[in-house]
Amino acid sequence: MKNFIGTYECRIDDKGRLKLPAALVKQMGDFDDGSFVIKRAVFQPCLEVYPMTVWDRLMKKLTGLNRFIKKNADFIRQFTAGVKVVELDNAGRLQISKDLTQFAHLKKEIVITSAGELLEIWDKEAYENVIATSEENFANLAEEVMGNLSFDDEAL
């Protein structure tokens, strides 16, 4: 399993083209076919960018849900709303559609941050507000989320 690494500040132009930093373009080249899926995030006003192999694995789980159960069908519809397939152009840019740009309130200044197997694209001001939690709040969150995990050498 490959993971992205890093947080990058960049700009989006008026046509929705996002020029990616060279270090990130290099990481994206490590994924098989160079195709990515971009979608609205579930919990935050940002976008998620999945390598196609990761997206296919996720969709396999979703298509396993029974669509004759209304909440499953509703979830799949909402989760996949606005999904777009994107590829880097020759200039190392991603084209972000207007509906996704509006969802994430993207202005000129953008932050792209790694989130394991996927990337998140944020408006810079919104990103800074989300990560501006106090050290104590983050410590409590870390303890709650990670405190009961066992870390052995094989898992690291």
Written description of the protein model:
By secondary structure, the protein is of the alpha+beta class. The chain has a single domain, classed as Transcriptional regulator MraZ domain (Chemotaxis protein chec, 3-Layer(aba) Sandwich), CATH 3.40.1550.20. 36% of the residues lie in helices and 25% in strands. It has six helices and eight strands, in the order E-E-H-E-E-H-H-E-E-H-E-E-H-H. Strands 1-7-8-4-3-5 form a six-stranded antiparallel sheet. A two-stranded antiparallel ribbon has the order 2-6. The protein starts with 6 loop residues before the first strand and ends in a 10-residue tail after the last helix. The mean pLDDT is 90.
Task: Report a brief summary of the structure.
Forms oligomers. By secondary structure, this protein is an alpha+beta fold. The protein is 36% helix and 25% strand.
